[in-house]
Amino acid sequence: MLLFNVRFLLAGILMLVYAHLFAKNKLPKKGDWKQLLIFGLLNTTVYLGLYIIALKQVSAGIGSLAPATNPLMIGILSALWTGRRVKAVQWVSIALGMAGVIIATYPLLQNSTATVQGLALMLLSMLCYSAGVIYFAETKWQLPSIVINGWQVFIGGIVLLPFTFLMHHPSAVNHFDSRFWGAEGWLIIPVSIISVQLWLYLLKVDAVRASLWLFLCPVFGFVYAAILLSEPITAYTVVGTLFVIIGLYLGQRKQPAKKME
To answer: Which pLDDT belongs to residue 256?
Structure first.
């Protein structure tokens, strides 16, 4: 909780300083605050708050698989929320992506353990994130994306702060050393600022198609584990990655326009 709270608050401050002092963007108006609060709660506070709590009761294998459920949830919520028909090729792409992630994580799942409460919290966490994606895509924002991202992550961090203090164990000792700040630097600059800015852009183009890229999260997790932790790349990883790439290709390619009769 502390790791994430520091990340949210510092990332928000950095983006807001840039947006309002250097880029000279105006502050949100009265009607914008409600939108920013809802998005911040769904996308930051509830989603990551529940995910952090769930990781205490769910093994890493299941935790790495959870984000792969988001494209399916986003597709279903998009159809229910907006009435938009999700194309058949996109359902096929979602199915291939989920199959690929399950295959790649199969060795991890063999020894995985989880409580019912942990699974329920993780499922609710993914559902909140998916709802946040659709909410952002369907809202008519009057603010630049850097302002939206800065305020939503800052507000999300502020709301999460009381829970961080409440759940802190008195015997726990925090070490604010180079490893802590190195991790924070990675979470703040490449993740919360650069990646989320790109993500928000993609969501405005097409939320369902954008969600398919989430299947790459577990795949990159395996790559990082191999490079940083010398964990082996197995046949399951290779086959699962191929499924994900094929699914992404099908979901992202432009469909030929129908000829007029």
So the answer is: 54
| Distance in angstroms (rounded) separating the CA atoms of residues 7 and 194 | 14
The whole-angstrom separation of Cα 233 and Cα 221 is 11
- Whether the pLDDT of residue 105 is over 90: the answer is no
Q: Say if residue 232's pLDDT is above 50.
A: yes
Report, as an integer, the average pLDDT of 185-192.
Answer: 95
